[in-house]
Amino acid sequence: MSNKSYWMLAGGLLLVGAPAAHAAGTDNDQFSLSAGANYSSGKYGSTSTTDIWSVPVTGEYDTGNWTFKLVVPYINVSGPSDVIPGVGKVKNGNPHGRGHGKGNAGAAPLPPVPGTSTNGSASGLGDVVASAGYQLFTSNDQSFGVDLTGKIKFGTADENKGLGTGKNDYGVSLDTYKVIGDWTAFGGVGWMKYGSSQYIQLKNGFNATLGAQYKLSHDDSFGAYYYYRERIASGGAPQSELTGYWNHKLGDSWRLQAYVMGGFADGSPDYGVGATLKYTF
Question: Could you say which residues form the signal peptide (predicted)?
Fold first, then answer.
């Protein structure tokens, strides 16, 4: 465990899959790049399954008490058009169903009736996420800390492909950790202002995380955390999921993280797996 730990709420978790430990705030600035691969599958309360692949590339810059991060994902979604990545099941009035326009022999199918769900596959740029975290407090021995993080999810994913809402979201979270020997307990609460489009109506919502990590050796640690987000869409459901993860150092500059997760509510996928490789300059 590093001296300073940031536990960022992904919402998005969606993009990385598990919180990551960051370097302690020092006079030496640090920059890192990471790339990952994530897969999730679930029915989200419907009869059809939605499969989501994401390949996020993340740039992170640490300076003093500040941590800045930018996540740029490429995603592929297969399933009903009323399931939106990062949101879950919604009432989607967009007349462009997911995969619409890819008929046989070049013949485009008739547009779906607005408000109905169509099955299909689509891929492209996902929602780009930028965040800035600041260490509000740390104890003298750096075994306890409190961090404040602001986040903007830009609506860069194509709403006509069902890859996103097409609108920006804005969030803030307050996170804390406590180191006790080889154990680290962590948790946080967050709030997101979700953007609504003419097709998808969302309401603002709170989320929370609670977990623990154990330092197995100098190079290895593992942990688990529970994530909850209240329902944000009419016809949708809350998110409730448990994630277990493993961190492994590959020398001084490389770090590998892998995770598995299971969902307990219709707002979450039934299961997910993923891995991230990070290099610190």
Answer: 1-23
